[in-house]
Inverse folding.
């Protein structure tokens, strides 16, 4: 199999048709300007002509042809626009990267957040059902509320390094990574609408849909925590960073590699994916600075101080900013996904970056910038 990256329009003669053997299987990527869509195209270009010797019999072996469409080209909240785009491109797969990701703004912009994160995925699913296309929908760790716990006395796992800012008040219990069967309990409007989006695509497509929940996504493109920290570290004498929210940073390129494996292996179901390990935003910021200094992306260190979510929210409120409630713990367990891809003999990239610790993934990304 090969992957062809293109932004050109399909021809009127039906270049994008996938009804015959070995005709390119068209993949539509929504939200072309998002950091994940950029990563999907970048990773696809890296794969290029690479022979995928482990493709299963369920895959046709035909090449994939990619079209990344911006909101102006494909508005996922407009059913008529979706139908027209599907008729033009005739996709085999749709990867939905379009999302309303402004977590705080979603609290007072509920209508738009609902349209993009809940209604849009449903409309895509409906058109996929009509056309026979497969849908991969990207969701979030924020569908959880930080409630999954295990008994620390039996788990053998040590408490978080900063007990004064740890998410659990009971010293005998530890938060454990969420698995796909855990019951979602979103705390914010953003999380609730992301969950609604999941529920609606499942209601339409059932077991044929693929949902990937990820966490704390960052990359070299767009607005994300790493780029924000680098900018602040270059311009501010000191920073305050939240230390009682625990999750796992995930590099967009690593997620993109996993997504392409799921597409090429025709996998369905709900999957969790993040890098390995866990940290607080404070620990993440400290590691960004440490590695960036070593790579000469920063010239001088700045002071980084831990702060609680409550104190950070109070400071924001004093500036007239109301913050959405976020989960104190939202680490995802990627075991099901890894087991699924191994079972399907999926292609792993040479560096196996998909399964690296979050610090290693961060280093891979920062090296791209150095």
């Amino acid at each position: 199999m090969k992957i062809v990256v293109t932004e050109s329009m399909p021809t009127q003669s039906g270049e994008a048709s996938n009804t015959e053997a070995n005709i390119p299987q068209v993949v539509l990527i929504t939200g072309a300007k998002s950091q994940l869509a950029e990563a999907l195209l970048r990773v696809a270009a890296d794969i290029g002509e690479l022979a995928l010797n482990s493709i299963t019999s369920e895959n046709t072996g035909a090449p994939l042809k990619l079209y990344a469409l911006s909101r102006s080209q494909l508005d996922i909240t407009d059913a008529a626009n979706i139908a027209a785009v599907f008729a033009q491109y005739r996709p085999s797969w749709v990867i939905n990267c379009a999302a309303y990701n402004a977590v705080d703004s979603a609290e007072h912009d509920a209508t738009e957040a609902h349209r993009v994160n809940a209604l849009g995925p449903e409309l895509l699913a409906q058109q996929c059902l009509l056309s026979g296309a497969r849908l991969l929908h990207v969701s979030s760790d924020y569908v959880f509320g930080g409630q999954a716990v295990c008994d620390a006395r039996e788990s053998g796992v040590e408490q978080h390094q900063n007990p004064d800012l740890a998410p659990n008040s009971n010293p005998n219990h530890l938060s454990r990574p969420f698995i796909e069967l855990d019951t979602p309990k979103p705390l914010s409007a953003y999380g609730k609408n992301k969950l609604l989006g999941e529920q609606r695509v499942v209601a339409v497509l059932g077991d044929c849909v693929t949902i990937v929940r990820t966490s704390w996504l960052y990359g070299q493109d767009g607005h994300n925590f790493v780029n924000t920290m680098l900018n602040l570290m270059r311009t501010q004498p000191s920073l305050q960073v939240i230390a009682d929210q625990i999750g796992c940073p995930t590099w967009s390129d690593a997620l993109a590699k996993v997504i392409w494996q799921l597409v090429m292996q025709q996998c369905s179901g709900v999957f969790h994916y993040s890098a390995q390990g866990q940290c607080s935003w404070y620990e993440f910021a400290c590691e960004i600075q440490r590695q960036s200094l070593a790579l000469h992306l920063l010239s001088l260190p700045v002071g980084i101080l831990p702060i609680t979510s409550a104190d950070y929210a109070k400071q924001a409120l004093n500036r007239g900013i109301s913050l959405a409630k976020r989960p104190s713990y939202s680490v995802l367990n990627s075991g099901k996904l890894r087991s699924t891809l191994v079972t399907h003999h999926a292609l792993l990239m040479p560096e196996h970056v998909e399964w690296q610790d979050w610090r290693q993934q961060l280093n891979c990304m920062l090296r791209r910038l150095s």
Notes: The two ends are 33 Å apart (CA to CA). DSSP finds eleven helices and 15 strands in the chain. The CA atoms of residues 59 and 264 lie 7 Å apart.
